[in-house]
């Protein structure tokens, strides 16, 4: 299998054709970059979404835990990743506490 090439200026992306919306990657992301989003065409009624690509720290946790090899993280030599911030940690906590979905009323902490 050929190596995946990252879309330009994208730290993390999902192959929705392979993703079964298990939310394991959302749980693994320490920066709150990923969230589940309602998707009526999905078997489970939801699909993973990259909600905060600028916060990706390039840890690869999401890619490593995906049982379907459906999520990819750019290589460190091709993308400059963010540092883990308290705002990112707070967003991840809000997502985890809301069933792996970003709360509708969530306001980004500054």
Task: Describe the model.
By secondary structure, the protein is of the alpha+beta class. It has one domain (about 10-95): Alpha-Beta Plaits (2-Layer Sandwich). Helices cover about 20% and strands about 15% of the residues. The strands form two sheets. It has a two-stranded antiparallel sheet. Strands 2-3 form a two-stranded antiparallel sheet. It is globular and about 35 Å long. About 25% of the residues are buried. The model has no long low-confidence stretch (mean pLDDT about 90).
User: How far apart are the termini?
Assistant: 42 Å
CATH class term: Alpha Beta
* CATH hierarchy: architecture: 2-Layer Sandwich
- What assembly state would you assign to the polypeptide chains in this entry? single chain
Under CATH, the topology can be stated as Alpha-Beta Plaits
Sheet-strand content, in percent, reads: 5-15%
Give the helix/strand class.
alpha+beta
Query: How many extended strands?
Result: 4
Question: What topology, given as strand order, has the largest sheet?
Answer: 1-4
Number of helices: 3
Helix content: 10-25%
Estimate the mean pLDDT confidence.
Answer: 89
CA radius of gyration: 13 Å
- Largest pleated sheet: 2 strands, antiparallel
* Poorly predicted runs: none
Any idea what the shape is?
Answer: globular
């Amino acid at each position: 299998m050929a190596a995946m090439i990252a879309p330009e200026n994208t730290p993390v992306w999902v192959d929705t054709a392979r993703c079964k919306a298990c939310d394991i990657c959302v749980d693994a992301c320490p920066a709150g970059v990923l969230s589940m989003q309602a998707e009526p065409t999905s078997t489970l009624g939801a699909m993973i979404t990259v909600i905060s690509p600028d916060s990706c720290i390039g840890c690869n946790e999401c890619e490593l835990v995906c049982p379907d090899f459906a999520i990819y993280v750019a290589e460190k030599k091709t993308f400059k990743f963010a540092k883990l911030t308290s705002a990112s940690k707070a967003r991840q906590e809000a997502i985890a506490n809301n069933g792996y979905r970003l709360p509708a009323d969530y306001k980004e902490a500054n």
